[in-house]
UniProtKB/TrEMBL annotation:
It comes from Pseudoalteromonas carrageenovora IAM 12662. It holds the Pfam family Glyphos_transf. The keyword Transferase applies. This is CDP-glycerol glycerophosphotransferase. SUPFAM superfamilies: UDP-Glycosyltransferase/glycogen phosphorylase. The keyword Isomerase does not apply. InterPro entries: Glycerophosphate_synth, TagF_C. Signal peptide: none annotated. GO terms for cellular component: membrane.
Length: 354
């Protein structure tokens, strides 16, 4: 059996790598297809770290030409792919989403049927099967966190030389849109001087031109001695989740991934919305978010405004178990089994259905 991982964005890798490692353990060869962009040199460093068999392509069409040439047993995707009909003449396709967040796009990603889509938990499985009754969905869990649940060495370990072992560590991980980032004060790290602060913005915030305001703020915050700002090469959220005592975020899948570790989460309800998402256009924001958005919100304490954030942080760190039962009860709905064996189940399915 041979497998290819279609890697249109670097941040797909944390979901792919646990599967890649399980395949390697069984002597199954994998190749990675990377798409050329301005961060090619950074991606090359990741490739070298894992010693990945890989090629570079310009776009999906060029990738498709390669798939026709290779005729792999399976090709993995983290999102949609435009040439599935051509692909299915030579290979089977597998979709492995890169996040478990509250956005409705989680479900619309299945508009074009792949051979199989691996999903997280019985609830998501049932919803997708009702929406796409002719398609194949398999509940395996959320393999991105397998390394943490298995107490493995975490890839991409952070060098936090300026952090104090005597301070607790906060992780601020805003998404790119809709985001709380621009509503945080320019000097907010001063307000949290008694803590180590990890800042892990979404990959788009630091890689796309339209979010240059984000970059300006982020680079300013990085000048504070108690702050570590993720670099572009820190593509994986997993090392940050592993190091943090508490997470602050907004409408990001980071909220739910951190909650699966049963550590306290603060959800920022204050978001910078574009004018086209405000007032009479607020329906656009609601459409962007999943219908379960409200229920998922219960796993976190909510900060209505930045002004009340510090008090909530202090309270949650003093009582980290206060929402533990709710986090645990929602974990099955969010991610299915959290036993560190999701990637193992994926590989088992591939082998049984080769």
């Amino acid at each position: 059996m041979n497998v290819i991982f279609d890697t249109q964005s670097l941040y797909y890798l944390p979901q792919y790598v646990p599967v890649f490692k399980k395949l390697s353990e069984k002597g199954i060869k994998s190749k990675f297809v990377f798409y050329k962009n301005s961060h090619k040199h950074l991606i090359q460093r990741v490739i070298d770290d894992y010693n990945l068999d890989h090629i570079w392509v310009d776009d999906q069409l060029q990738a498709m030409d390669f798939y026709e040439q290779e005729k792999a047993d399976w090709v993995f995707f983290a999102n949609s792919f435009s040439y599935l009909e051509r692909l299915h003449k030579v290979s089977k396709s597998a979709q492995l989403g890169h996040g478990i967040g509250p956005k409705s796009s989680y479900y619309t990603k299945s508009n074009k049927a792949m051979t199989v889509r691996f999903v997280e938990g019985a609830y998501r499985l049932a919803r997708l099967e009702s929406m796409y009754p002719d398609d194949k969905f398999i509940d395996v869990g959320f393999c991105k966190l397998d390394p943490i649940f298995n107490n493995e060495k975490i890839d991409g370990a952070l060098e936090l030389n300026n952090f104090s072992d005597e301070k607790q560590t906060l992780l601020y991980a805003p998404t790119f849109y809709p985001s709380s980032l621009e509503l945080f004060p320019k000097n907010w790290p001063e307000h949290f001087g008694n803590y180590n602060i990890l800042i892990k913005p979404h990959y788009f915030s630091i890689s796309k031109e339209r979010y240059k305001k984000h970059v300006k703020l982020l680079e300013h915050w990085a000048t504070y001695p108690n702050v570590y700002l993720a670099k572009v090469e820190d593509y994986s959220l997993v090392p940050f989740l592993d190091k943090a005592d508490l997470l602050i975020s907004d409408a990001s899948s980071a909220l739910f991934e951190f909650a699966l570790l049963n550590k306290p989460v603060i959800w920022c309800d204050f978001l910078k919305l574009r004018w086209g998402y405000r007032g009479i256009f607020s329906y656009r924001f609601k459409k962007r978010m999943d219908r379960d958005y409200g229920e998922y919100a219960n796993l976190a304490v909510h900060a209505k405004k930045y002004k009340g954030l510090k008090k909530i942080v202090e309270q949650q760190l003093a009582e980290p178990e206060s929402l533990a039962n709710i986090r645990l009860s929602l974990s099955e709905k969010l991610a299915g089994k959290v036993d560190g064996k999701a990637s193992q189940r994926i590989v088992q399915y591939l082998m049984e259905n080769n």
